[in-house]
Amino acid sequence: MAAPVKKREIHQKTVEERDDDEEQESSGSEDEEQEKMADAGMEIQVDFEGRNPQDPDFHGIKTLLQQLFLKAHIDLGALTDLIVSQNYVGSVVKQSEDLEESDEEDSEDTFDVFGITTVINISDRQNLPCIQQLRDLLKELSSEHATDAAYTMIKNVLENDSQPIGLLINERFINIPAQISVPLFENLIAEMKRASNRKMPFNFSYYILICKLYKMEDKKVGKTKNKKRNNADTPTVMWSNPEEEIFAEEATVSFEFTVENESDSGLSGAWTETDDEMKPYRRVLLFEASKFQSIINKIKSQLS
Protein backbone atom coordinates (compact mmCIF):
# COMPACT_ATOMS: atom_id res chain seq x y z
CA MET A 1 0.00 0.00 0.00
CA ALA A 2 1.42 3.34 -1.03
CA ALA A 3 2.61 5.64 1.70
CA PRO A 4 0.96 9.04 2.20
CA VAL A 5 2.30 11.83 0.03
CA LYS A 6 4.85 13.97 1.83
CA LYS A 7 5.59 17.43 0.46
CA ARG A 8 8.89 19.20 0.91
CA GLU A 9 9.05 22.85 0.02
CA ILE A 10 11.90 23.87 -2.23
CA HIS A 11 12.67 27.57 -2.28
CA GLN A 12 11.65 29.64 -5.27
CA LYS A 13 13.88 28.95 -8.24
CA THR A 14 14.55 30.79 -11.44
CA VAL A 15 13.66 28.93 -14.63
CA GLU A 16 14.98 30.23 -17.91
CA GLU A 17 12.99 30.21 -21.12
CA ARG A 18 12.53 26.76 -22.69
CA ASP A 19 12.70 26.76 -26.47
CA ASP A 20 11.52 23.20 -26.86
CA ASP A 21 7.75 22.81 -27.41
CA GLU A 22 7.57 19.67 -25.29
CA GLU A 23 9.13 21.45 -22.33
CA GLN A 24 6.79 24.41 -22.79
CA GLU A 25 3.82 22.06 -22.50
CA SER A 26 5.18 20.33 -19.41
CA SER A 27 5.85 23.49 -17.42
CA GLY A 28 2.42 23.43 -15.82
CA SER A 29 -0.26 26.17 -15.74
CA GLU A 30 1.20 29.65 -16.30
CA ASP A 31 -0.60 32.95 -16.60
CA GLU A 32 -0.37 35.01 -19.78
CA GLU A 33 2.12 37.46 -18.30
CA GLN A 34 4.60 34.68 -17.52
CA GLU A 35 4.24 33.32 -21.06
CA LYS A 36 4.96 36.75 -22.52
CA MET A 37 8.07 37.02 -20.35
CA ALA A 38 9.29 33.62 -21.51
CA ASP A 39 8.64 34.50 -25.15
CA ALA A 40 10.76 37.61 -24.67
CA GLY A 41 13.65 35.52 -23.38
CA MET A 42 13.22 36.75 -19.80
CA GLU A 43 13.37 34.70 -16.64
CA ILE A 44 10.33 33.72 -14.58
CA GLN A 45 10.03 32.65 -10.98
CA VAL A 46 8.53 29.26 -10.21
CA ASP A 47 8.04 27.61 -6.82
CA PHE A 48 8.92 23.92 -6.73
CA GLU A 49 8.33 21.27 -4.11
CA GLY A 50 9.56 17.74 -3.62
CA ARG A 51 6.98 14.99 -3.14
CA ASN A 52 7.07 11.26 -2.78
CA PRO A 53 6.60 9.51 -6.15
CA GLN A 54 3.03 8.37 -6.70
CA ASP A 55 1.20 6.34 -9.35
CA PRO A 56 0.12 9.43 -11.39
CA ASP A 57 3.81 10.37 -11.74
CA PHE A 58 4.54 7.22 -13.75
CA HIS A 59 4.70 8.80 -17.22
CA GLY A 60 6.65 11.84 -16.05
CA ILE A 61 9.27 9.70 -14.31
CA LYS A 62 9.55 7.32 -17.25
CA THR A 63 10.08 10.23 -19.65
CA LEU A 64 12.92 11.54 -17.48
CA LEU A 65 14.51 8.07 -17.43
CA GLN A 66 14.27 7.93 -21.22
CA GLN A 67 16.39 11.05 -21.54
CA LEU A 68 19.10 9.34 -19.50
CA PHE A 69 19.10 5.82 -20.94
CA LEU A 70 18.02 6.66 -24.51
CA LYS A 71 18.12 3.40 -26.48
CA ALA A 72 19.60 1.20 -23.77
CA HIS A 73 17.89 -2.17 -23.48
CA ILE A 74 16.21 -1.57 -20.12
CA ASP A 75 12.56 -2.00 -19.27
CA LEU A 76 11.97 1.59 -18.17
CA GLY A 77 8.33 0.89 -17.40
CA ALA A 78 9.31 -1.74 -14.83
CA LEU A 79 12.06 0.52 -13.50
CA THR A 80 9.54 3.34 -13.06
CA ASP A 81 7.15 0.97 -11.28
CA LEU A 82 9.97 0.08 -8.89
CA ILE A 83 10.69 3.76 -8.18
CA VAL A 84 7.03 4.45 -7.46
CA SER A 85 6.67 1.32 -5.30
CA GLN A 86 9.50 2.51 -3.01
CA ASN A 87 7.93 5.94 -2.57
CA TYR A 88 9.23 6.19 1.01
CA VAL A 89 12.60 7.01 -0.58
CA GLY A 90 13.16 9.68 -3.22
CA SER A 91 11.36 12.74 -4.55
CA VAL A 92 9.71 13.99 -7.67
CA VAL A 93 9.98 17.72 -8.35
CA LYS A 94 6.71 19.45 -9.10
CA GLN A 95 5.50 23.00 -9.40
CA SER A 96 4.03 24.10 -6.08
CA GLU A 97 0.33 23.52 -6.02
CA ASP A 98 -2.00 26.51 -6.24
CA LEU A 99 -4.58 25.89 -3.53
CA GLU A 100 -7.35 27.65 -5.42
CA GLU A 101 -6.72 25.55 -8.52
CA SER A 102 -6.52 22.34 -6.50
CA ASP A 103 -10.08 22.91 -5.29
CA GLU A 104 -11.32 23.02 -8.88
CA GLU A 105 -9.09 20.52 -10.65
CA ASP A 106 -7.44 17.23 -9.91
CA SER A 107 -3.86 18.23 -9.05
CA GLU A 108 -2.61 14.88 -10.34
CA ASP A 109 -3.57 16.01 -13.84
CA THR A 110 -2.38 19.61 -13.42
CA PHE A 111 1.18 19.34 -12.19
CA ASP A 112 3.82 17.54 -14.19
CA VAL A 113 7.07 15.96 -13.05
CA PHE A 114 10.03 18.34 -13.49
CA GLY A 115 12.62 16.05 -11.91
CA ILE A 116 13.28 12.80 -10.06
CA THR A 117 15.89 12.19 -7.36
CA THR A 118 16.03 8.70 -5.93
CA VAL A 119 18.18 5.60 -5.53
CA ILE A 120 17.71 1.98 -6.58
CA ASN A 121 19.46 -0.93 -4.95
CA ILE A 122 21.00 -2.88 -7.85
CA SER A 123 22.58 -5.47 -5.55
CA ASP A 124 19.21 -6.49 -4.15
CA ARG A 125 16.27 -8.05 -6.02
CA GLN A 126 18.43 -9.27 -8.89
CA ASN A 127 15.55 -11.53 -9.83
CA LEU A 128 13.82 -8.46 -11.30
CA PRO A 129 14.57 -8.28 -15.05
CA CYS A 130 15.02 -4.49 -15.00
CA ILE A 131 17.65 -4.77 -12.24
CA GLN A 132 19.51 -7.49 -14.12
CA GLN A 133 19.34 -5.36 -17.28
CA LEU A 134 20.90 -2.44 -15.38
CA ARG A 135 23.70 -4.64 -14.07
CA ASP A 136 24.35 -6.13 -17.52
CA LEU A 137 24.40 -2.64 -19.05
CA LEU A 138 26.95 -1.38 -16.54
CA LYS A 139 29.20 -4.40 -17.09
CA GLU A 140 28.94 -4.08 -20.86
CA LEU A 141 29.62 -0.34 -20.92
CA SER A 142 32.55 -0.56 -18.52
CA SER A 143 34.02 -3.45 -20.50
CA GLU A 144 33.85 -1.40 -23.70
CA HIS A 145 34.78 2.07 -22.45
CA ALA A 146 36.54 1.93 -19.07
CA THR A 147 40.21 1.42 -18.40
CA ASP A 148 41.19 -2.06 -17.29
CA ALA A 149 41.51 -0.86 -13.69
CA ALA A 150 38.11 0.87 -13.71
CA TYR A 151 36.43 -2.12 -15.35
CA THR A 152 37.89 -4.48 -12.78
CA MET A 153 36.77 -2.24 -9.92
CA ILE A 154 33.21 -1.91 -11.22
CA LYS A 155 32.94 -5.62 -12.01
CA ASN A 156 34.22 -6.62 -8.57
CA VAL A 157 31.84 -4.27 -6.80
CA LEU A 158 28.87 -5.47 -8.85
CA GLU A 159 29.68 -9.08 -8.05
CA ASN A 160 30.29 -8.53 -4.34
CA ASP A 161 26.88 -8.62 -2.66
CA SER A 162 28.45 -7.78 0.69
CA GLN A 163 29.05 -4.25 -0.67
CA PRO A 164 25.61 -3.09 -1.88
CA ILE A 165 25.48 -0.59 -4.73
CA GLY A 166 22.85 2.08 -5.18
CA LEU A 167 22.11 3.53 -8.60
CA LEU A 168 21.66 7.23 -7.87
CA ILE A 169 19.13 8.82 -10.24
CA ASN A 170 19.29 12.60 -10.54
CA GLU A 171 17.21 13.74 -13.52
CA ARG A 172 15.40 17.01 -14.24
CA PHE A 173 14.70 19.54 -16.95
CA ILE A 174 17.90 21.25 -17.95
CA ASN A 175 16.71 24.79 -17.19
CA ILE A 176 16.05 24.11 -13.50
CA PRO A 177 18.99 25.50 -11.46
CA ALA A 178 21.47 23.16 -9.81
CA GLN A 179 20.79 24.58 -6.34
CA ILE A 180 17.54 22.62 -6.27
CA SER A 181 19.58 19.42 -5.99
CA VAL A 182 20.80 20.16 -2.46
CA PRO A 183 17.50 19.76 -0.55
CA LEU A 184 16.61 16.80 -2.75
CA PHE A 185 19.87 14.99 -1.96
CA GLU A 186 19.68 15.89 1.73
CA ASN A 187 16.16 14.54 1.93
CA LEU A 188 17.22 11.38 0.10
CA ILE A 189 19.99 10.74 2.64
CA ALA A 190 17.53 11.22 5.53
CA GLU A 191 14.99 8.87 3.94
CA MET A 192 17.60 6.20 3.25
CA LYS A 193 18.72 6.38 6.87
CA ARG A 194 15.15 5.93 8.10
CA ALA A 195 14.61 3.03 5.70
CA SER A 196 17.86 1.37 6.80
CA ASN A 197 16.82 1.70 10.45
CA ARG A 198 13.72 -0.27 9.50
CA LYS A 199 15.87 -3.03 7.97
CA MET A 200 15.14 -1.98 4.39
CA PRO A 201 17.98 -2.43 1.85
CA PHE A 202 19.23 1.15 1.59
CA ASN A 203 22.55 0.93 3.40
CA PHE A 204 25.06 1.20 0.56
CA SER A 205 28.81 0.86 0.24
CA TYR A 206 28.96 2.50 -3.20
CA TYR A 207 26.82 4.56 -5.53
CA ILE A 208 26.81 4.67 -9.29
CA LEU A 209 25.70 7.86 -11.02
CA ILE A 210 25.21 8.17 -14.77
CA CYS A 211 25.72 11.78 -15.86
CA LYS A 212 24.71 13.58 -19.04
CA LEU A 213 27.27 15.92 -20.56
CA TYR A 214 28.08 17.57 -23.87
CA LYS A 215 31.32 18.45 -25.60
CA MET A 216 31.93 21.23 -28.08
CA GLU A 217 34.75 23.23 -29.58
CA ASP A 218 36.19 26.18 -27.65
CA LYS A 219 35.17 28.64 -30.37
CA LYS A 220 31.58 28.33 -29.13
CA VAL A 221 32.36 28.61 -25.44
CA GLY A 222 31.22 32.22 -25.15
CA LYS A 223 27.69 31.30 -26.18
CA THR A 224 27.06 28.50 -23.69
CA LYS A 225 26.33 27.94 -20.03
CA ASN A 226 27.38 25.32 -17.49
CA LYS A 227 30.80 25.23 -19.10
CA LYS A 228 34.21 24.13 -18.02
CA ARG A 229 37.25 25.24 -20.02
CA ASN A 230 39.93 22.65 -20.42
CA ASN A 231 43.14 23.19 -22.37
CA ALA A 232 43.25 24.38 -25.98
CA ASP A 233 43.42 20.85 -27.36
CA THR A 234 40.36 19.44 -25.63
CA PRO A 235 36.70 20.29 -26.12
CA THR A 236 34.68 22.28 -23.64
CA VAL A 237 32.61 20.09 -21.32
CA MET A 238 29.09 21.16 -20.38
CA TRP A 239 27.23 19.23 -17.71
CA SER A 240 23.49 18.87 -18.06
CA ASN A 241 23.31 18.89 -14.24
CA PRO A 242 26.24 21.08 -13.11
CA GLU A 243 26.39 19.61 -9.59
CA GLU A 244 27.38 16.27 -11.10
CA GLU A 245 30.79 17.69 -11.97
CA ILE A 246 31.44 17.78 -8.21
CA PHE A 247 30.43 14.12 -7.94
CA ALA A 248 32.91 13.40 -10.75
CA GLU A 249 35.72 15.03 -8.77
CA GLU A 250 35.07 12.63 -5.90
CA ALA A 251 34.56 9.47 -7.97
CA THR A 252 36.69 6.41 -7.23
CA VAL A 253 36.60 5.43 -10.91
CA SER A 254 34.73 6.72 -13.94
CA PHE A 255 34.41 6.29 -17.68
CA GLU A 256 32.48 7.97 -20.46
CA PHE A 257 31.07 7.19 -23.89
CA THR A 258 29.33 9.03 -26.67
CA VAL A 259 25.61 8.70 -27.39
CA GLU A 260 25.84 10.78 -30.55
CA ASN A 261 24.16 8.08 -32.62
CA GLU A 262 21.23 7.77 -30.24
CA SER A 263 18.22 10.05 -30.26
CA ASP A 264 18.55 12.50 -27.38
CA SER A 265 15.27 13.54 -25.76
CA GLY A 266 13.97 17.04 -26.25
CA LEU A 267 13.80 17.31 -22.47
CA SER A 268 17.56 17.63 -22.37
CA GLY A 269 17.11 21.18 -23.57
CA ALA A 270 17.69 23.37 -26.57
CA TRP A 271 21.14 24.83 -27.10
CA THR A 272 20.55 27.60 -29.60
CA GLU A 273 23.03 28.08 -32.43
CA THR A 274 25.26 25.26 -31.17
CA ASP A 275 23.20 22.10 -31.64
CA ASP A 276 25.27 20.85 -34.57
CA GLU A 277 28.52 21.42 -32.66
CA MET A 278 27.58 19.63 -29.46
CA LYS A 279 28.24 15.94 -28.93
CA PRO A 280 26.22 14.17 -26.22
CA TYR A 281 28.05 11.87 -23.82
CA ARG A 282 27.35 9.85 -20.71
CA ARG A 283 29.84 9.60 -17.86
CA VAL A 284 29.47 6.79 -15.35
CA LEU A 285 30.78 7.47 -11.85
CA LEU A 286 31.43 5.01 -9.03
CA PHE A 287 31.95 6.67 -5.65
CA GLU A 288 32.02 5.57 -2.03
CA ALA A 289 28.79 5.98 -0.09
CA SER A 290 30.73 7.52 2.80
CA LYS A 291 31.44 10.55 0.57
CA PHE A 292 27.83 11.35 -0.27
CA GLN A 293 27.22 13.90 2.51
CA SER A 294 30.54 15.68 1.95
CA ILE A 295 29.76 15.92 -1.77
CA ILE A 296 26.42 17.54 -0.94
CA ASN A 297 28.19 19.99 1.37
CA LYS A 298 30.60 20.84 -1.42
CA ILE A 299 27.71 21.37 -3.87
CA LYS A 300 26.02 23.64 -1.35
CA SER A 301 29.20 25.65 -0.90
CA GLN A 302 30.13 25.99 -4.57
CA LEU A 303 26.69 26.50 -6.09
CA SER A 304 25.14 28.75 -3.47
Automatic annotation (TrEMBL):
<feature type="region of interest" description="Disordered">
    <location>
        <begin position="1"/>
        <end position="40"/>
    </location>
</feature>
<feature type="compositionally biased region" description="Acidic residues">
    <location>
        <begin position="17"/>
        <end position="34"/>
    </location>
</feature>
<comment type="similarity">
    <text>Belongs to the BCP1 family.</text>
</comment>
<dbReference type="GO" id="GO:0005634">
    <property type="term" value="C:nucleus"/>
</dbReference>
<dbReference type="Pfam" id="PF13862">
    <property type="entry name" value="BCCIP"/>
</dbReference>
<protein>
    <recommendedName>
        <fullName>Protein BCCIP homolog</fullName>
    </recommendedName>
</protein>
<dbReference type="InterPro" id="IPR025602">
    <property type="entry name" value="BCP1_family"/>
</dbReference>
